[in-house]
Amino acid sequence: MNKNILWAFKNALVSIIISVLICFCPFFLNAQQTDNSLSPSATTESSDFQRGSVAGTLTAVYEHIGIPTSLPGGTVSGALSDIKTTVDSFAPGNIAQQSTLVTVGGQVDGVATKLGTPSGSSTVTSLVDSVHTKLGTPSGGDTVVSILADILTDTDDTITLIGNPSTASSVRGEIKAVKDVVDALGSACTPESSPFSTGSSGGVFCLTSSFSLSASQVGVTIDGSNVEIDLAGQVINGNNLVDTIGINIDASAASIKNIRIKNGTIANCRRGAIILDGSSNTIQDVIIENIMITGCNGASATVHDVVSFVGAKKVIMRNCTINNNGNSAHDLTALRLNGCTRCTFEKIEVIDNAATNFSGFVLQTGTSCTSNVWSECTVRGHEASSVTGTFVGFSLESSANKNIVRSCIVSDNEAGGSTVTGFSSTSTAKNNFVSCLVHSTNSSAISAFVRGFYLSSCTQNNMFSCIASDQSSSAGTAIGFDFQSSSLCSAKECTASRNIGNSAANSMGFNQSPTSAGASGSTLNTFIKNVALANSTTATGAAGAGGQYAGFDETQVSVDGINTDLGGAWHNVALTGLV
User: Fold this and answer.
1) 41 with 177: CB under 8 angstroms?
2) pLDDT of residue 33
3) Which of 162, 184, 206 lies at the terminal end of a domain, its last residue?
4) Domain boundary among 184, 219, 251
5) Which of 415, 413, 465, 458 is nearest to 439 (CA)?
6) Helix pair 3-31, 104-115: axis angle to 10 deg
7) What's residue 79's pLDDT?
8) Residue 576 and residue 579: Cα distance in Å, rounded?
9) What is the Cα–Cα distance from 170 to 163, expressed in whole angstroms?
């Protein structure tokens, strides 16, 4: 029989089959109900989707939408990319971009082509048998019509799977379902439900439940590089027992890098919530994010650091909260840096903590903490008015140089000690405070100094667009911006308002002291376009005596030109009166 006769015979037979299917199709379509979903929790009747692995799922999708079944490049991401590229090219409602797939015969030919059935199949029956064998559809009998009906049912299910327009599904939705499978199963995560060490080999570790610590125990010890710790919303609880630590990065044996800690709570750890100990070897390239730290009260009569970084470089800590730690029995620092460089702190909230002497962020004296950045961090709600202790929101101590503090807030804090300060910089150089705010920081102690911004023995520190407002020292002195024995520093476009001490003479917006020549004096500091408003009910100096009005004060020599030449580029403004 030549090819033309065979083709005519085939078409005639297909037409007869179509007619039969039109009559029986509703029966066959209703005879099988399947739930073809790529969701990990779903089940399906097709054996192609029972493979139990990401690769199997992807291969099954490949077979149904007409891509070669091998995973390109051997990677899941490559497979997903290939599927998406192919599916995006489809016309809506079609399995593949083939005009022949419009009849049952066309469907069979198209599926056969995609599945790679033998090209030598010369009859519809043998072709259908081959396709049927490939698809693994129920036999339903041994006739061509029943086999075709099985294939038609399977094809409809496949169309539904990849995005039949008549359903709520979509091609992109199904691809996302594949991605969800990959996200859930694609990365190897070691489950943990009790204290553990990562070892030196690295890996991904996920908490499957919260756990508590015994005395002197560490929740997670990271002693190798390339580690990710996902707390997965769980809690490491130190039970307020002695020397408990939440997470400790220990570089005593070797340098450590590429660490990520995220998504959970560390509570009631007496020695510290997170410690990076790079005193022996460097710790670098660490990300800490979305961590809540609470209830870490420390040991009595010791300086307690809730978070401590030693010898760390290029650490990023963001979106974390240090809340309700400490008590009035000891000193507390929320976060201390010792010998750290190029670290970044973003949106760290230090809220409602307590201590005898409290510090929010500290760059420890003499340890060369340089080139670190704080952005949108907050220290607020410290209350210890009955305790004779000190308070400082941000403290840059000796040798802490070239740091930037930007858009940070110190607000609503109170202490009973002799010094209460929002931002402090002592014996440092080249630090910049940009768009920072100190508001409502107070002390009732006798002869206390309450300061918004304090520079002591500094050089080349700068303040831009900063505000110090509503501070009070009911028995002492309140100053918005205080320059003590500092040189070559500047304040530009800053505002000091309603900083009220126990007298007019002790209520100042800007203060520079002393101003005598020599190493101990404050010299060559620059004040540009600053405003001092309502820092006293009366003037601190007589009008005309160097133009010294309420808000600006300078020991020995008055700030020249205050309230004069208001159109000049260097003018400052001081206004008296309460508002």
Assistant:
1) no
2) 39
3) 184
4) 184
5) 413
6) 100
7) 58
8) 9
9) 4
Strand partners, 512: 483, 554
How far is residue 396's CA from residue 462's CA, in Å, rounded to a whole number? 13
Written as six digits, the tokens of 297 are: 């009260």
At 260, which amino acid appears? R
Tell me, what amino acid is at 445? A
User: Is residue 249 within 8 Å of residue 256, measured between CB atoms?
Assistant: yes
Indicate the pTM of the whole model: 0.66
The C-alpha atoms of residue 319 and residue 288 are separated, in whole angstroms, by 9
Please state the rounded mean pLDDT for residues 414-418: 84
Query: 558: which DSSP letter?
Result: P
Amino acid 494: pLDDT: 93
Structure tokens at 332: 């507390």
**Of 221, 260, 214, which is closest to residue 237 (Cα–Cα)?**
214
Residue 128 in contact with residue 137, Cβ under 8 Å? no
Contact 109, 100 (CB under 8 A): yes
CA dihedral 68, 70, 73, 79 (to 10 degrees): 70
Task: Give helix 104-115 / helix 124-135 axis angle, nearest 10°.
Answer: 60
Q: Could you tell me the residue range of the domain that residue 518 belongs to?
A: 357-575
**41-51 mean pLDDT:** 36
φ, ψ at 260 (rounded to 5°):
-135, 130
DSSP-assigned states of every residue in 274-304: EEEE-SSS-EEEEEEEEEEEE-----TTSEE
Q: Who wins on pLDDT, 38 or 241?
A: 241
CB burial string 341-378: b at 16+ within 10 A, e below: bebebbebbbbbbbbbbbbbbbbbbebebbebebbebb
Note whether 405 and 423 are within 8 A (CB): yes
- Specify if 283 maps to a domain: no
pLDDT digits (tens, 9 = 90+) for 426-460: 999 999 999 999 999 999 888 899 999 999 999 99
Task: Judge whether 527 lies within some domain.
Answer: yes
Dist CA 325 CA 327 (whole Å): 7
Residue 470 has a CB neighbour count (10 Å cut-off) of 18
Give the C-alpha separation, 324 to 285, whole Å.
29
SS3 5: helix
CA dihedral 110, 111, 113, 117 (to 10 degrees): -140
Please count the structural domains in the chain.
2
Residue type, position 9, single letter: F
* Nearest residue to 509 via CA among 488, 484, 530: 530
The residues near 56 (Cβ < 8 Å, ≥ 6 apart) are none
Tell whether 81 is covered by a domain.
yes
pLDDT tens for each residue of 242-269:
899 999 999 988 999 999 999 999 999 9
Is the CB of residue 322 less than 8 Å from the CB of residue 352?
no
Lowest mean per-residue pLDDT among 250-264, 286-300, 492-506, 521-535: 521-535
Checking if the pLDDT of 156 tops 60, the result is no
- Determine phi and psi for 568, rounding to 5 degrees: -80, 165
Tokens matching residue 134: 């490939």
Tell me if 114 is assigned to some domain: yes
Intra-chain end-to-end CA distance of the chain, in Å: 107
Distance of CA 317 to the CA centre of its chain: 8
CA distances from 524 to 334, 489, 565 (A): 35, 7, 20
